[in-house]
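U., I forgot to send this yesterday:
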Amino acid sequence: MVIMVINFNTPDFSQKCSPFSCFNQQFAIINGIIINMIINMMKTTTLAIRLLGLTVPLFLLPPAYAADIPPEIYYKGIDTNLDGDDKRSGALPIGFTFTFFGNNYTRFYISSNGLILFGEVGEGDVKYKNTTIPNSDSPNNYIGAFWDDVTAKKSEKSRLYYRTIGTAPNRRLVVQWTDMGFYRDPIPMGTFQAILYEGSNNIQIQFRALLANKDRNHGNDATIGLENANGSGGVLYSYNKVSVDSGSVILFTPNGGSYDKNDAAPYDGVFLGLKDTSPPAVPALTGPVKNKEAHLTPEFSWGTTKYADKYRLKVDNDSGLTSPVIDVSALTTTSYTSTIPLTANTTYYWAVIASNANGEAMSEVWHFTAKDETAFPPGISALISPVQGKTNVVTSPTFSWEAANDVDSYRLIVSAQRDLGSPFYDKSGLTATSQSVSGLAEGTKYYWAVVAHNNTGDTPSATRDFTTVEDLDDDDDEVLDESDNCPLVANQDQKDTDGDGIGDACDTDDDGDGVPDDEDNSPLVPNPDQTDTDGDGIGDVSDNDDDNDGKDDVNDNCPLKKNPDQADADNDGVGDICDDTPEGPCAEYEAGPDVLNRTVPVNMERFLDYCADESGCRVTLGKKEGNAAPSVLGSATLVYKATKHWEVKSPNNQKGTDANGVSQHIMWSYPCYFIDAEYTCGDEACNAGSVIKTDDKAQVGLVKWFDDSNTICVLVIRDDINDLSDKTCE
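Result:
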């Protein structure tokens, strides 16, 4: 019997196999028959495994690193001022009511050891030594974001921030441990967060950057999970186990009296800092590749880092980077090549620190072995676009990435599977750093990566995901949904009468007058009062003939009252049926042969209406022959004021007496008289400047006196007291 064993071994990645896949396969073949296959998931950066001369495309996901988290929204955090080891804050406001294991809380406590605590706390709640979940010993009633002997004393940059962001009912409490370290350990730890969500009471723990490639940084001495108020129950994600990496997310969702956990939830792109504006993002290293070999004078490279003004490169043969052999500051480019050779067959650790005026951000610490050789696999291609987690990506996107070190060509892979299996697009031999791909399905999540290639091997990038737009044009009206004011109903003209951003085709109140279209008698013109004078079902604002008399409103001299004959006796443009003075404001005051020597009463109400303003009206006597226009008689003039009195404006206003010897006329110009039979000037003549009192009940009238000709006496009334024209009315 012949037993042939084929081993597929992968590089050592500190035995961290989550959240990405790793392979270590063993095949046992007895007499040509496979009798055993053990597939053990491990981390790798190998593009393909060649089996019996055949290429098996097992593009395996490399470790994620902080630069491939989604774009972050920056907020100025509230500093807890916790400085040192085993520290705990006082009670801090959540900003909303949060339910944790069935109990409601509005305040919380932060521990430097990676805990959020609720309820009553004591000295035992600052323990640095973690325990598993559940455990009745204190602390209890906590969120273990990363419970380990984490310290805020590592550097001046170490801070514990919190802030409630958003508006009700969708607020979030963000708690952030920033640039933390481990007690009495030179290696840095990193930055991580716990986010509490209003309403859903979800809890998300996420890791922005775990800086060192050491088991402890990835959870080997930590507790991650939730525990209830008395330690009798909880939800454990991991205890003293390598389980998280940069970019890892664990979402806890309430389910009855417990929680469901999901480590495939999307990263919530939010970051807190000390200043008003953001410090740099975390640099993404691209070469020398982690756990690989490199030249004695390698080119160190990293991706362009958002908000960074300059960079510092540190290279050391110690993982703590305490005595760097290369330490270069104020770099403004994203690469550096040392002119001093490194020592062959030596492991080196390196990191990049990005900075601007608001702070610093350190990359992960990678390591490589320096070799006195000339040929090495290429570096990593830092991905540019689409950014991690982007949604509503067009179905024909352009993918772009940064150039890798020592590269001959690139391979772009796009797949709907997270492991990049069964790719939708897989193209090698690309020499540019961008490539367009068309025909992606709508509303689909895709994963993509770039493999840098040269004659010595392949180096894959990190893997990003994005989601295409659901449908670019749901209603097929040739207007893309993102610009369509009615995306589900075809309306190519995009008409939006009330300008509310909702197309008329979708708007239940097109004119925005508060009356639904199906009840509105003028759905496209605002008319909240729904006035419909002629009762034809069409509101006046939209009706071309409001009074339904056969005359369009624009040509109708009385548009709200029927008058098909359009009669307008005084020719003032207002139909008689609508005219308060259909024969003109003076016609009623005519005195002619048929009323000789009799007073024609003057309607003071009409005087008040016509002379309503403070300046008053100019009143003179006039005469006319037949239908001719009147002419002014003499210079006698009065002004009638809205305060109900007359002012004499000219002399020659002689007074007469009636049978009782009472003065009568106010002004005269033969043969016409304008008289007040109740109030007079008294015993004195009505000279200019005198005031003759009257009111709307006075017997005021017009008289033609002792003249039997065809002359007709009229009052000439004008709005303008200085108007000397002969017209009876304006």
